[in-house]
Amino acid sequence: MEFEVFSLKDREEVKTFETLLKEYVNQQAQFSLSHISLVDVYDSLQIREDGGKVFTAILDITINFMLLHCDSHRVGATWNQYFSKGKLEGGSILDSQVKFSGKMEIHRFNSSFVLRYRALWDKLMGFLILYYSPKNYDKFCKSKSRKRSFKSLSKDITQLTDEFVQSVEGLLTEFDNKFRTPEAHGTGALRKYSFTMESMGKNPQVELIGFWNVMNEMILNIGKEFKID
Within its chain, how far is the Cα of 196 from the centroid? Predict the structure, then answer.
């Protein structure tokens, strides 16, 4: 059975997709982000034999980064709507449906954030291998541990410093231990904090903001790589 597969066929379709994506994010998160220009990426990759493959990797990264932004925004917006100072403070989520629903929404979007964030890093590591060492891309994709494979394959890529590779490894190890592994393979870590009535600043989930900042900087740097003045 054959299925129709979506693809962007030319520059005009890339431009239209980018415009519609920004409008969607504006609707979901009040403001969009313009770290990566898909049109600039498309134009920059015309000289590469594997440009289509690299563009697809960037397109996937861009979509998931925008959705990560939406997840993060919804957490903050829900908190501000229900649980900011002077609103539903203290007590228990069992006190009312409003408290319970608000906390469930925060748990929902933070759970999505955690799993999407970690998957996005796998996509980013894969992109870096594909972009700088395309001959090793299939090897990376077939590896059981993308994190270990990235560290090993990066040794021969001069554009990726040891400091950068070590920082990625340290970041992912910390993130996996605190959030991803419990959520994906255990009984969950977020649940322990999502349903308390503590202030956001005292809740361990606030650490997700720091992880977001690292991702934000990473996407900015990728966008600069393809920027056309």
Answer: 26
d(CA 24, CA 33): 11
**Quick count: other Cβ atoms within 10 Å of Cβ 56?**
15
DSSP conformational letter for 89:
-
Q: How far apart are the first and last CA of the chain?
A: 45
- Residue 69 has a CB neighbour count (10 Å cut-off) of 22
Residues with pLDDT less than 50, the chain:
none
In whole angstroms, what is the distance from residue 119 CA to residue 161 CA?
22
Question: CB of 17 within 8 A of CB of 8?
Answer: yes
What tens digit of pLDDT does each residue of 71-125 get?
999 999 999 999 988 899 899 999 999 999 999 999 999 999 999 999 999 999 9
Enumerate helices (H) and strands (E) in the chain, giving the number of each: 10, 0
* Per-residue model confidence (pLDDT) at position 105: 96
Query: Residue 9 has what pLDDT?
Result: 95
Report d(CA 198, CA 104) in Å as an integer.
Answer: 15
Domain segments of the chain as ranges: 37-225
Alpha helix positions (H), 83-206: 97-132, 137-142, 146-153, 162-175, 181-185, 190-194
Summarised one tens digit per residue, pLDDT across range 40-49 is 999 999 999 9
